Amino acid sequence: PDPGLRLIAVRHFIDAAAQPDAIQDWLREGTVPGGPELDAELRWRILTRLAVLGATDETAIAHELDKDPSATGQEGAARCRAALPTAEAKTAAWQAMFTDDTLSNYLFTATAQGFWQPEQSELLNPYVARYYPDAIALAARRGPAIAEAAGRHAFPTHAIDPDSIRLGEQALTDPALTPALRRKLTDQLDDIRRALAVRDAH
After folding, report:
1. Count of domains forming the chain
2. Which pTM does this prediction carry?
3. How far apart are CA 44 and CA 131, in angstroms?
4. Which of 30, 71, 72, 128 is most buried by its number of CB atoms within 10 A?
5. Distant-in-sequence, close-in-space partners of 186: CB < 8 Å, separation ≥ 6
6. In terms of Cα–Cα distance, which of 185, 162, 161 is closest to 172?
7. Are residues 121 and 80 in the same domain?
8. How far apart are CA 48 and CA 65, in angstroms?
9. Is residue 70 part of a domain?
10. Do 162 and 193 meet the contact criterion of CB atoms below 8 Å apart?
C-alpha cells in the first residue's frame, strides 16, 4: 500500500481515537503495527490525543519533551498540556495565552490548538464568553500577528449556538477591536452561522 496514504490513515485514526488503548500501545512500542515507525510528529500527535482523553499526564508530557526538546517538541508539549481535561490545565493554558504575554506566536498557536476540544465542551463552556473580551485586550496589547493567531486558533469553534453568535456580534461593536482580529472574528462568526443553519436544517 501507498505509504503516504497509510500515514494519512494513521493520523486520522489517532485524531479520532475514542479509546486510548491502541494508540498507547503504539506510543510505547514506537511503531504502528505494519508501519510506520513513529517520528516525533506522530508521537506528539498520539500524546495530544491521549491528553484529550485524559489518558496521560504532565509527567509523561515532560518525559516526551526531554526526548524531543526541539521547537517542535516545545509546541507539542504546549498543545498536550492545554488539551488535558482538567480545570487546572485549562486555567493555566488560558492564563498563558491571554494574561502572561510571554508565549511566542508558535507556542500561542500550539496552546490554542490544544485548548478547545469538542469532547470537553462542559469544561470549556465558561471560556466561550471570556474569549471575546480577552482576545480583544490581547490583540490590542500584542499586535496583529497574535491577533491573527487568537482569531484563527483560539476561537471557540465548537460553540455552535445562538449565544456564541450573540457574544461575537457584540464583540464586533467593541471600539477596542483591532482590524486584524475583526477580520478573523467576522470570518469565524460566518462559519458558525453556516454551521448552525446546517444543523438546524436537519
Report:
1. 2
2. 0.94
3. 26
4. 128
5. 172
6. 185
7. no
8. 13
9. yes
10. no
